[in-house]
Amino acid sequence: MRRREFIQTLSISATALGCPQLIPSLTANSKLSSTKPGMKMHYEIKTLNLKYTWTIARNSSDVKKNVFVYLEKDGITGIGEAAPNIRYNETPESTIDLIQKAVPLIEKLNPWEFAQFSLDLKEIATGQTAGKCALDIALMDWIGKSLGVPLYMLWGLDPAKAPLTSFSIGIDKPEIVKQKVREAGPYKILKIKVGGPNDEDMINTVRSVEPHKPIRVDANEGWKDKETALRKIEWLAKNGVEFVEQPMPANMLEETHWIRERIDIPIIADEAVMTAADIPKLAEVYDGINIKLMKAGGLQEALRMIWLAKSLGLKIMVGCMIESSVAIAAAAQLCSLIDYADLDGNLLISNDPFSGVRFVDGRQYASARPGIGVKPV
Amino acid sequence: MRRREFIQTLSISATALGCPQLIPSLTANSKLSSTKPGMKMHYEIKTLNLKYTWTIARNSSDVKKNVFVYLEKDGITGIGEAAPNIRYNETPESTIDLIQKAVPLIEKLNPWEFAQFSLDLKEIATGQTAGKCALDIALMDWIGKSLGVPLYMLWGLDPAKAPLTSFSIGIDKPEIVKQKVREAGPYKILKIKVGGPNDEDMINTVRSVEPHKPIRVDANEGWKDKETALRKIEWLAKNGVEFVEQPMPANMLEETHWIRERIDIPIIADEAVMTAADIPKLAEVYDGINIKLMKAGGLQEALRMIWLAKSLGLKIMVGCMIESSVAIAAAAQLCSLIDYADLDGNLLISNDPFSGVRFVDGRQYASARPGIGVKPV
Question: Which residues, in sequence order, are CB contacts of A87 under 8 Å at separation 6+?
Answer without folding.
Answer: A58, A271
